[in-house]
Amino acid sequence: MEYKMKIKLRTLKVDIFLFIVLFAGMFLILGINNDMAVTTLTEKISESNQQVLQFCVNRISVRLSQIEDYMFAYMVENPDMSVLRYDSENMAARVHVVDDLSGMYANYGDTSGFFIYMPGTDFLAMKTWKLWETLDTMELRRFIAEECESDEQMISWKTMNINGSEYLYHIRSYRNQRIGAIISLKTLQAWVDMDALKEFNDILLVDKTGKAVLGREFEQIPINNMTEYRYYYDEDGIKYIMISEPLSGTDLIYCGMLLNKNILGNLNRWQFGLIAMMIICGIVVMLGSVFLYYSIISPLNGLNQAISGFASGELDTKIKKHSIHYEFENINESFNYMTEQIKKLKIDIYEQKIERQSTQLKYLRLQTNPHFCLNALNVIYSLTLSKDIDMIKRLVLCLTRHSRYILKTSQSKVALQEETAYISNYLEIQKIRFPYHFEYVMEIEAGLEEILVPPFILQTFVENTFKYAVTDSEKLKIFIRVQKTCMNMLSIQIEDCGRGFSDKVLDSIRERKRITDENMEEHYGINNILERLDILYKEEYKAVFSNCAGQGARVVIEIPMEAGSEF
């Protein structure tokens, strides 16, 4: 097949180049400029407002820190507090402490109140002012007592809701004494310069759950990554830029909300114009996309489907000729030619593989037979010396059956009943050889007689039993069981009461290495069986070699259930 490259203007490269030249510049200029302008403007305004918000929030944090330091210094340095640490019932010290709480209003009148509590006693001094006229004093006292009972030092200010109003409270601990302050959240607003925050449309105070505890009630505020500005849409769909700053020493976050449309200002018209141009460009792109679909995407999809079908085994897959581009015509012709060649090559390789596997199976099967024949000849020779004619006749009859099975069994699988009859005949021959040294039990589950198994699959393991397990001192017991498993597999199990497999042999079997004895003589029987199973069943079989709990070897082979005649 000849391949000739022709120079044509109607090629894939030319079409793609024209498409890029036509639309790339327009999209890059409009899209990038619009995005960069809006992003840059938003970032600059957000950074400026972030600094203003940070400055105001820091003022609040500083004031809270001053209150914390004052409370701790009072508790540690005040002589009346020292007296109460050792004598909590001292009435003079108690009176002085209560008077001190009233005097704290002069320096910290922007708070809502202070309290002092000593756990384990009835002493709770409290002085409140501002917005507390309607409070349930007993309820507040219970709340303070419960909060002060803990020995853990309170790290940050916490929020509480009393009569529908939100407050901050903080408790400092020193030995067995507690001092605390309560501040209305509305008071925090008085600590900042609200004129500096006039650019914000709304100022919110948000708790750690994202709920606004002060300010306009927005829906749930996302509080992750609060150091970066983000866009936020309220329940009416109005777009805001949200700028956040955590309030140090508390679990609260200040959020400043800026209307997005106010940031852009006069740029809105320009942005709308750009959007209109982008829509026009989008229409052009859509038309171009339709052209690209029929000229490029559709042929590529056809090629991809053909490749997938061919990979899944559909060797007759062909691609129809594509008349738009020369490149696709060339690719399609090359693919069709390639599939024809691969199909022919695969058929040739498959036939060679079948022939090679058949030859290998015959070779492996023939390797099994000579061992038994040599042993049988030795038995006949021994019987001739003893002139036991009847036993010789019996042995020759068994050998005739044995040889007939070997000569007629040229197929890769036989019926289970033929294989078990063969192994029974083999065991009868061994009875002649070892009349008082072994016994066997063979259990075959009913209904499995026609299941196909590899020929001579049992002989190797039974023969190894006689070779390594028969002794003059102990009677050998052989157990053979064939049954169907719950996974619809045929299980063949052979056990004996001999000395079992050595660790070296088990390791060699698991690693599929050569099996050798103490004299470094190699044994092929087990490896021959495993190689035959590999050829016949690939990875669908299971072979487990182990030793019994007491003594003896155990072999369990599971193969797929196949019913039918020889094949």
Question: What descriptive keywords fit this protein?
Answer:
567 residues; alpha+beta; Heat Shock Protein 90; 2 domains; 5-stranded antiparallel β-sheet; 13 helices; 51% helix; 19% strand; elongated; disordered N terminus; HAMP_dom
- What is Rg? 47 Å
Mean pLDDT: 78
Structural class: alpha+beta
Uncertain spans, ≥5 residues at pLDDT below 50? 1-7
Task: Enumerate the strands of the largest sheet in spatial order, edge to edge or round the barrel.
Answer: 2-1-5-4-3
- The shape, in one word, is elongated
Q: Largest beta sheet, briefly?
A: 5 strands, antiparallel
Q: Give the number of DSSP strands.
A: 19
**Domain module tally:** 2
Number of helices: 13
Helix share, percent? 40-55%
- β-strand percent reads 15-25%
Detail the topology: elements first, then pairings:
Layout: H1 12-77, H2 79-86, H3 91-107, E1 113-117, E2 124-128, H4 137-148, E3 158-162, E4 165-174, E5 177-184, H5 185-190, E6 202-206, E7 212-214, E8 230-233, E9 239-246, E10 253-259, H6 260-264, H7 267-311, H8 326-386, H9 389-408, E11 414-415, H10 416-433, E12 438-444, E13 452-453, H11 459-468, E14 476-484, E15 489-496, H12 503-510, E16 515-516, E17 522-523, H13 525-537, E18 542-547, E19 553-560
